[in-house]
Amino acid sequence: MPGVADRPMTEDELLTGLTDALTLAGWTWTHIIRSDGVTMGHAGLPDVLAGHEAVPFVLAWELKAESGRLTAEQFRWAIALRGSPSIDVRVIRPSDYDQALEVIIRRRDPRDVWPQ
Questions:
Q1: CA 71 → CA 10, 63, 99, 102, 113, distances in Å?
Q2: Fewer Cβ close by (within 10 Å): the C or N end of the chain?
Q3: How far apart are CA 80 and CA 111, in angstroms?
Q4: CA 35 to CA 18: how far, in whole Å?
Q5: CATH code matching the domain that covers 4-110, chosen among 3.30.310.50, 3.40.1350.10, 3.30.1330.40, 3.40.50.10190
Q6: Using one digit for the tens of pLDDT, what is the confidence trace for 26-83?
Q7: Prediction pTM value
């Protein structure tokens, strides 16, 4: 019988796994979804914003399924936030899950985990 391991991780599963890890590792994080569907300010804010008192950077991660694409608004936010060296802006996909956990659990600098 096919199980969860037999199919790709969904974006919701990625979100749940990473936010659970953020909580367990002591990060302060947020994922903003308004129940009424109204957006205040500019649309496209990254899915997860997280900070930890022991690290010199903030995570601004947009979560996508393997084939997911950024919207124009999400791309605009990525460009706007990339100007700060203390904000790690990136798209995280299920294939990045283990590296993302390295950053979250071991508080490794994302630039060391994903060399560019």
A1: 18, 12, 24, 27, 25
A2: N
A3: 19
A4: 21
A5: 3.40.1350.10
A6: 999 999 876 677 778 888 999 999 999 999 999 999 999 999 999 999 999 999 999 8
A7: 0.89
**What would the mean pLDDT of 85-92 be, rounded to a whole number?**
95
Q: What percentage of the chain has pLDDT greater than the value 70? A: 91
Nearby residues of 102 by Cβ (< 8 Å), 6 or more positions away: 108, 113
Q: Where are the domains positioned within the chain? A: 4-110
Which string of b and e fits 22-34 if b means at least 16 CB within 10 Å?
beebebebebeee
The C-alpha atoms of residue 17 and residue 6 are separated, in whole angstroms, by: 17
Question: In degrees, to the nearest 5, what angle opens at C-alpha 15 toward C-alphas 28 and 105?
Answer: 50
Residue 1 confidence class, pLDDT cut points 50, 70, 90: very low
* DSSP letter for each residue of 36-72: T----SSS---SEEEE-TTSS-EEEEEE--TT----H
